[in-house]
Amino acid sequence: MDIEVTLVNSFTADGVGGNPAGVVFNADDLSDTEKLKIAQEVGYSETAFVASDNEVDFAVSFFTKTAEVDFCGHATLATFSTMFQKGMVTAGSYMQRTKAGVLSVDIAANGKVTMAQQLPQKLKQFSYQDISKVIGIDQDILASTQLPIEAISTGLLDVMIPVPLGYLDTIQPNDAVIAAFCQQHGVVGFHVFELCPPESRFTASCRNFAPLFDISEESATGSSSGALACYLSEHLALTNHYVFEQGRAMNCTSILTASVETKDTTIVSVKVGGFANHIGDLTVSL
Questions:
Q1: Smallest Cα–Cα separation from 209: which of 238, 250, 251, 239?
Q2: CATH 2.60.40.420 for the 121-273 domain, yes or no
Q3: What dihedral do alpha carbons 96, 101, 107, 111 form, nearest 10°?
Q4: Rounded to the nearest 5°, which phi and psi values hold at 58?
Q5: CA separation for the pair 281, 166 (Å, rounded)
């Protein structure tokens, strides 16, 4: 059986960069074992599988090269952008069923896709000393940010790690050490960020490490961007609309927008958006 996979770069910056994902349509009859094999053949950090659903518009599942994950932002963007570009859907609002819940996706007339995420769950907090040992930045330097290190999920549980401006690109990740830490503490990965100067077009520059799922570094992480927006909304007096840069250290810059809506200091909505470009097609034989 031949399976057609659409290859897409998500969260592109002015048409370039982004994070590649695979998309498989008509996946109703594929088993999890077959999906995992396809994801391994594609070789990207995630591949999305789109199936029909009796109650909402689509059911979407996400597989890394090693396992299924509950949600993937850049693969969601790849999925709905591809459907829009192929004329399978028009601009409008849709609902997708994922293992992270039923979530809305909006497609604008210009092709920008904005996806809702789960409301934030703050599940763990770590000391500067804990994280210093793992990412190789002195704990006093980490402490100088005066911001906490917290594990937050808006679909996947990542550790939000602030570093001072100028330190982000100096990190040389040790995959084995980061993976062991994440496994020990039940988190997916590290989302490290530095706040940008006020005159910058970006709110923050970011790097994401998830070697536990065979992702040494990722150039755009939608789920973590939602979590970071919630983090910033709580800890800093910024607007509730953010623009994040990611992938710079990989020479693959991506741009992600994020917004949170609050009511009486409680977050009631989290959304992440961006653009995607079709980059090719692949046939996988099962």
A1: 250
A2: no
A3: -90
A4: -150, 150
A5: 38
Measured at the CA of 158, the angle between CA 196 and CA 233, to 5 degrees, comes to 45
d(CA 163, CA 157) in angstroms, rounded, equals 19
pLDDT tens profile 200-252: 999 999 999 999 998 999 999 999 999 999 999 999 978 899 999 999 999 99
Contact 243, 202 (CB under 8 A): yes
How far from 158 is each of 23, 63, 231, CA to CA, in Å? 24, 17, 12
The angle at the Cα of 83, spanning 1 to 272, to the nearest 5 degrees, equals 120
Q: Rounded CA gap, 16 and 232, in Å?
A: 27
| Residue of 130, 128, 151 lying closest to 141 (CA atoms) | 128
Tell me, yes or no, if the two domains 2-116+275-285 and 121-273 fold the same way. yes
* Of 74, 91, 82, 65, residue with least CA distance to 5: 82
Report residue 90 as tokens: 């028009």
Residue with tokens 């077009």: 201
CATH number of 2-116+275-285: 3.10.310.10
Total residue length of the chain: 286
Percent of the chain with pLDDT over 70: 100
CA–CA gap between residue 212 and residue 216 (Å, rounded): 8
Cα 191 to Cα 131: distance, rounded to the nearest angstrom: 12
Q: Where are the domains of the chain?
A: 2-116+275-285, 121-273
The three-point CA angle 74-128-185 to 5° equals 55
What does the pLDDT look like over 260-285, one tens digit per residue? 999 988 999 999 999 999 999 999 99
Phi and psi for 244 in degrees, rounded to 5? -110, 140
Q: Which two tokens stand for residue 236?
A: 């800093």
